[in-house]
Each structure stands twice: as C-alpha cells, then as structure tokens.
C-alpha cells in the first residue's frame, strides 16, 4: 500500500512539474505571444478587451497582477478544464479540438505501438532461446531498420505504396467523400483502410528495438541457475521458455513499454504530418504554424497528462507481474 | 549455457587458446570494423566535402535534372546542386550530433553518476528530477519551445534536444553506479582513506566507460534523428543545412510526387547508413558491458577450433 502512495506521489510531483513548466515557458521565451495571438484573432472578428485579458491570463502575460497570483489563477483555470479558445479553429474551445483529435491518435499510434511490442517481444524471445538460429540472425538487420529515420521510411513507403502502386490512399483518416463519421460499417472499414499504411510504418520502424532488448534479456536470463535447475528437473522446453525464462526476461521490456507510451503522442506528430492524419499531432503542428499558443499549451498538457496516466497504469501492472517490487516497498 | 563449458573436451579446447587479457578496447569484429569504416568515411565527407564542392544554395535555371556528370546527384527544383547540399548537410548534422552527444554525456553523468555516488538526500532529489524529466514527453516539449523562438541557431536546437533527452541515460548510469558503489573493493578503498573524488574518478568511472560510450553513441543517433525530424516539420534551425532540412525542402518541392528520387533518397540514406554504423559500434560496446551476450555464440565456439561434429554435439547438449 505504501508503494502505491509513493507512486501516486511521484506522479503528482511530475504533473505539477509539467504544469509549472507550461506556465513558465512563455515567460522565459523572447517575443510576446499575446500580441501575435490578438492580431491573429483580429483577422477573424472583433477582439474585446475581455478576450485580450483572457489570453494574457492564459499565457501568463498579465503584468498588472503579481506572478504568484497569475500562477494560482492559471492552476484554477486548468482544474476547471478551461484551456481557452483556439485561434486556428476559431471559435472552437481548445478542449473541443483536443477531444476531436485525440481518439484518432490514440487508436492509430497506440494500437500500432502495442502490435509492435507484442511482435517484437515474441520474436525476441524466440531469438534469445535459440542463439544463432535464423530468427537470431535477423536481429542485427532489424535493428538497422530502426536507424532509418522514421519519417523518411514513411515517405518512401507512401511514395511506393501510395503513388507508384496505389495500394493505399495518400493521406487522411477516412474517405471524406463517401463516408461520414459514425459507427457504421462503411466508416469503420474506411478508417481501417486509411490507417493500415501509417500503422505499418510505425510497426516496421519500432519492432527491431523491442526484439533486440527482449533477445538480450532472454540470453542473460537463460544463464541463470534456476533455468539450469528447471532443465535438470526435466521440464518441457516450452515451459522453461515461457514460464521460467520469458516471464523474467520481459520485465525490462514492460518498463520500456511504459516509457515508449510517452512517444506514442510524440511520434504521432511526424506520422500525422506525413500522412495528414487528423490526430492530435496534426493539431499541434497547425497550432505551431498559426501561432496558436492556447491550443499548443493545451495539447502539451493533455499529452503530458496522458503519458503520466499511462505510466502510472503500467507501474501498477508491474506490481502484479513482478511481485518483487511489492516486497521491496 | 554453462553445461557446454563444463564439458572436459571443450575446457581443453578453450585452454589451448591464449590467456585472456583485460579488455580495454572492444575486440575487432567484422561488425565493429564495418561500423567504424562507415563512420570515418561519413565524417571525412562532412569535414572535407564542403571545401571541395560549389555553393549549395546557388540557383540555376536547370531545375529537377537527374544525376549527370556535372551534377553527381542531380539538381533540386531551383537548380541547386544536390551533391553540394549533401556535403554541407552532412557537416550540419554531424555538428548537431556531436553537440547533443557531449551535452547529454555531461548532463546524464552529472545527474546519474554523481547523484548515485553521493547517495542519501542528493540521490533522492537527482533521481526524482531525472524521473520527472523522463516522463515529460520530449518531442512535444521541443516543438513548444522551438515555436516560441523564431530565430534559432544550430546550437539552440542542439541544446534543446540535449535538455529533453538526457534523462533516460542518466537513469541507466545511476543504476550501474549504484551497483558498483556497493562493491567490496570500493568499500575497501573508502576504508583505506581515499578521498571521495579519487574513488569517483579512479575506482568507479573506469567501470562506467563502456556504458558511457554506448550512451553517447545513442545520444548522437538521437540528436541527429531528432534534429532531422524537427527540421522536417519545419521547426529546425533557420538558414542551416542538415539532412533534415534537405528532406524538408524535398518534401515541399514535391520531390516525391515528381519522382525526383535523387533529391529525397540521398539525405535519408545518409541518415540511415550513419545511424546503422553507430548501431554496429554499439553492438561491439554491448559485448563489453554484458559479457553474457558475447560468450557461447556460434562464432566464439568456432574459434575454439572444434570440428563440426563437436559443435553439433555441444549444441544438442545445450538444448
């Protein structure tokens, strides 16, 4: 139980750090985002002094109030779920923009990361179990695949499978001409069809890393004494492989998976930029291009919070699969 | 695996090989050789290349020509020499990698090694800070920071990348330092009255060198790829030439749709080949850090001069 509280405490500290960073960043940086935002807003309609004040509050640029007061106001605003109004998608509130784009990213990048993890760990287990087999010899070449910059791999695959052979669509999240969002068969199949190529690029570029890590841990675990004991007892090799070796070898990979969840949304920026996918990464980019600081900060916050939440979940899961972490606490 | 070495025949075969010396440098394997060779060629190209080629930004009225004897890698949409651009881009990207590597080394060894060595309250604070930095997503933070700064130099981009990427390797270093710190010989030198500074630099640091080397190689790869990604999104350093900016201009100049492969393939290939070369070097370093990965491989057993039958027998025994 104490372990649980420690974990919760840590994530609260991390959350506070992220919120504070988000608050202080606009102040540390040169330039005045408020003027840029107000001039952007003015192009689309009248800007009332109240709006300007709201922007100042949001960006921490209100010079009439002492800084600690601004900080408290900012925290209160965040906890009310008020992230301001987007400029790029004016007059939609930032919260709505994020609500529309987040599911796309979580579904696409989250699922493909999970698929890549499962395939990579599975192959790594087999490679470590039989050193020198053909699967094991695949490891170096698969790791080399990893050094190919992701966006370049995606571009080349898009060029080959989208332009040259036209197997997959060039961009977008679904067929906007013949289907409309909803839980219909047409829409869902269209989403799957449009999402296959982006998902494929993510899996190809990340599977090698999982495989290498799992393979190396498997090799280390196999030289432990308890494996020898298990062999001496005459257990079936498949049982030794799965229950004795793989179960222990997979632990660092699970911890790595938690960290890689942070890259789900981070990596999605590049993926979605290449494939023009309607996710949160595209929204982040368009907010940067439009100097939409409210949306940018909002997305950064949501990304951080989801990463922290995912990490917390994996930490809790870890106590279930590795009892030693419970015993130590 | 240990069953194999307990076999008397194998032990005898192993005994005939030369006595093992302490390894300070990784053994020269084919992998390491290829990795080093590629790295050296690319570094030479990046340092000497820009001196030998013409101006990378000179505009000519021959746009999008395929490779020819005059322009080895063809021209861009506005008639710029792709080969000249590639030489300058190589220099830019290598510079970024170098700066990110050095900064990451400094930051991660400060927070990882010093924290773990000092122990107590300092360690708690450093470790908390590292873990917080680890869970705050890096790329979005980089994007947010770089969007506030409109005029960015190459140094600025490198520093931002280093700040957001040191935490992972600090955690690795901390774990390893903790295990070294509690070994008997360190305790012995403490008892014999060596100063903390001497214990840190003479007793502990040499053990960390392979790990540090591999972390630096990772940091260089990360820095170069990170900068490329950032530049590709149009958020890189202003007015610089890197592999990432080349790809950005190629993408914006519709090189893909027009099939101008000579424009977008070379920078991507350079990134991939350089990354692969560094990864190969890291394989060799991994063998030092974790000897279990090295021993008992097929290659190793062949070196013990066993016949094929013996090799097969020993492998059957292992399984």
From TrEMBL, chain A:
Name of this protein: ABC transporter permease
Cellular compartments annotated: Cell membrane; Membrane
UniProt keyword Cell cycle present: no
Highest taxon of the lineage: Bacteria
Record-annotated ABC transmembrane type-1 domain positions: 102-314
Pfam families with a match to the protein in the record: BPD_transp_1
TM helices/strands, residue ranges: 9-29, 104-129, 150-171, 191-212, 249-275, 295-318
PROSITE patterns membership: ABC_TM1
Protein family according to the UniProt entry: Belongs to the binding-protein-dependent transport system permease family.
Keyword Transferase attributed: no
PANTHER family given in the database record: OLIGOPEPTIDE TRANSPORT SYSTEM PERMEASE PROTEIN (PTHR43376:SF1)
Keywords: Membrane, Transmembrane, Transmembrane helix, Transport
Main localization category: membrane
Lineage, highest ranks first: Bacteria, Bacillati, Actinomycetota, Actinomycetes, Micrococcales
Topology in membrane: Multi-pass membrane protein
Automatic annotation (TrEMBL), chain B:
Coiled coil spans: none
Pfam entry (one): BPD_transp_1
Main location: membrane
Source lineage: Bacteria, Bacillati, Actinomycetota, Actinomycetes, Micrococcales
Domain ABC transmembrane type-1 span(s) in chain numbering: 94-282
Keyword Heme: no
Organism of derivation: Occultella gossypii
Alphabetically ordered keywords of this record: Cell membrane, Membrane, Transmembrane, Transmembrane helix, Transport
Top-level taxon: Bacteria
Ranges that cross the membrane: 32-54, 94-119, 125-146, 153-173, 261-285
Xref: CDD domains: TM_PBP2
Family statement: Belongs to the binding-protein-dependent transport system permease family.
Identification of the protein by name: ABC transporter permease
Localization annotation: Cell membrane
Keyword RNA-binding tagged: no
Spans annotated as Disordered: 1-28
Membrane-related topology note: Multi-pass membrane protein
Skewed-composition ranges (Low complexity): 1-18
